[in-house]
Prior knowledge:
Blueprint: E1 4-7, H1 12-17, E2 22-25, E3 28-34, H2 48-64, E4 73-80, H3 86-96, E5 103-107, E6 118-125
Parallel strand pairs: 4-5
Antiparallel strand pairs: 1-2, 2-3, 3-6, 4-6
Helix pairs in contact: 2-3
Amino acid sequence: xxxxxxxxxxxxxxxxxxxxxxxxxxxxxxxxxxxxxxxxxxxxxxxxxxxxxxxxxxxxxxxxxxxxxxxxxxxxxxxxxxxxxxxxxxxxxxxxxxxxxxxxxxxxxxxxxxxxxxxxxxxxxxxxxxxxxxxxxx
Length: 138
């Protein structure tokens, strides 16, 4: 029987909303919508590129807690507060996903606060980065 592993951070929002940063069920890993707040300093960068870089650092930490990494991500949902920031965000996303090329959705809804310029929610499969890949062009 598999164990469900739940990853928590010091986020007050996780405690308030009773949710986990990440949940691993077998080899599937579901990472909650993640913002660019630095977990040590609790500071939020003002620059959208800096926020996006911090988002990936936060997701990476959550995945490492369940023996996975960014290259194991198979799906991503990318939320950008202001449509004009999409090219900047996608530049960082492109750099970060170069190895895995997950299925992805990009949308521009209002986020929980105006200070959040970007958030990502991802699904990973532990070990996906070590599996053979067959690329199909349609």
